[in-house]
Design the sequence.
């Protein structure tokens, strides 16, 4: 022992401070509250996303049904007035459904470009 200091055998590093158990418990509770709040927000976001996708699906189904009706009418030799308007270039809007203006724009893109 050259330096005169005697090393004690044991753990190295910091000694654990005496942790106030009440403070630790309160931090744990606060963390749990924040976790539940984040989870609630995440579920609200996902529910809104699902409902918007369901609305979009319904609109697309209505549009598909309209196209099916047009096809069945054309199979019978009848040309629907909406298609006549698109072929002649008239911008007359028939009061059929809310998606008719959207479909006429899509149909116009198909007829002029040859692509969707």
Sequence:
């Amino acid at each position: 022992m050259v330096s005169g200091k005697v090393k004690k055998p044991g753990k190295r590093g910091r000694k654990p401070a005496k942790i106030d158990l009440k403070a630790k418990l309160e931090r744990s509770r606060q963390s749990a509250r924040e976790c539940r709040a984040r989870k609630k927000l995440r579920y609200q976001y996902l529910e809104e996303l699902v409902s918007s996708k369901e609305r979009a699906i319904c609109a697309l189904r209505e549009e598909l049904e309209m196209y099916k009706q047009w096809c069945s009418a054309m199979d019978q030799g009848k040309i629907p007035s909406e298609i006549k308007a698109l072929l002649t270039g008239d911008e007359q809007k028939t009061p059929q459904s809310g998606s008719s203006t959207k479909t006429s724009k899509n149909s116009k893109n198909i007829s002029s470009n040859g692509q969707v």
Notes: The first helix runs from residue 21 to 75. Confidence is low (pLDDT under 50) at residues 97-116.
